């Protein structure tokens, strides 16, 4: 069994070959094959899950909020970061949509 969660990039042994040849001389041979396995980040792992399980994902501490006045940084839940940035994104998106309608 193999863990399907996040894992780091690394090399794993995928094949072993052993051989022997006999004639005037006896030759023994062994080969190993290694392949590089790409890692999977925790973020990528979480985003591949079912949509229903992503609700709990919003409560995890994924954001860093930095104060421009004091320079203090704090960890915040993802839902709080989305709540802060959603109005800015929505206003920008609505403005772009209105400009697109003017040209039609």
What does this structure look like?
The structure is a single chain. This protein is an alpha+beta fold and 104 residues long. It has one domain (10-102). 34% of the residues lie in helices and 35% in strands. The protein has three helices and four strands. Strand 1 (10-22) and strand 2 (26-37) form a beta hairpin. The longest helix has 25 residues, at 78-102. The radius of gyration is 27 Å and the shape is elongated. It starts with 9 loop residues before the first strand and ends with a helix.
Distinct helical segment count: 3
Sheet/helix structural class: alpha+beta
Provide the number of structural domains: 1
Helix content: 25-40%
Number of strands: 4
Strand order of the largest sheet: 1-2
Give me the oligomer status.
single chain
Main beta sheet: 2 strands, antiparallel
Strand and helix order:
EEHHEEH
Output mean pLDDT: 83
What is the rounded distance between the termini?
A: 58 Å
Q: What is the approximate shape?
A: elongated
Radius of gyration: 27 Å
Q: Show unreliable segments.
A: none
How much of the residues is beta strand, in percent? Answer: 25-35%
